[in-house]
Amino acid sequence: MKNARELFSKMKDDEKEPYLKMAKKEKLAYLIKKREYQSQNKKTRTPSAYNLFMADLKGTDSNKFSEQGFFNYAYKKWKSLDESKKEKYEKQAEKLKKDNDRNYEEKKSLEKQPPKRPLSTYNIYIRERLPALKKQYPNKEQTDFFGMIAEEYKNLSNAETNKLQKKADKEKIRYEKEKNEYDLQMSQMNVSQLEKIEEDKKERARSRTKTEKKTNAKSKNKKKEESDEDDYEDEDEDDKTKKKRGNSKRAPKKKN
Q1: Furthest CA-CA distance within the chain
Q2: Is the distance from CB of 157 to CB of 137 less than 8 angstroms?
Q3: Is residue 33 in a domain?
Q4: Angstrom distance (rounded) from CA 8 to CA 15
Q5: What CA–CA distance (Å, rounded) separates 184 from 13?
Q6: For residue 69, which of 86, 54, 89, 48 has the smallest C-alpha distance?
Q7: What is the H or E stretch that residue 192 is in?
Q8: What global pTM score does this model have?
Q9: For the chain, which end, N or C, has fewer CB atoms within 10 Å of the first or last residue's CB respectively?
Q10: Residue 64's domain is classified under what CATH number?
């Protein structure tokens, strides 16, 4: 590493430029992957009891809140809601939070155990040689061992290099297999979370539909009652009008 730094520092600016461009591209690719990972694996926000209540109010006739606005209307309805009904929403929110926390913890436990990346031929050689060198030279520093291993690696025969390459190929196969299994686990976790969210949405929609049907039925009954009362009043008015007309058509009595 020290030798590489010294060589790079001695290079001219035009010689450094392609390496600096490569570094910028690598950094940009890393940042993009990091953001994608963060967006896919961030903790899902759990709706509160009030959020669930507002979701159930969607579809309410806009005439009811046209003047004050939907949010003011929802807030007043929530404040005047029976405690037993509030408790129902609070229990539902608590259940969603527990499910969300459990899924998140399961996901995090998987993230702590990703497959180890495949070792290169050089790393395999380090792994095999380092313990022996430590026993042989117990007083040497760790950096000294890496320098010795680097020199040995440069002078390996083709046969020794081929042996290391076969081991590196096995490492790649091992990594691909474990990576596929890991990705499958993570995707299944994401799917189960999405399915849970969708099921909760459908359940709230079904509950909202039932509430709307009940409200509409009550509204129809009320309108029918008002209509019946109006018809009765109209009939009563018609009877009175007929009586008046009948009285006016009677012949006046002759005076003696």
Answers
A1: 155
A2: no
A3: no
A4: 9
A5: 46
A6: 54
A7: helix 158-249
A8: 0.37
A9: C
A10: 1.10.30
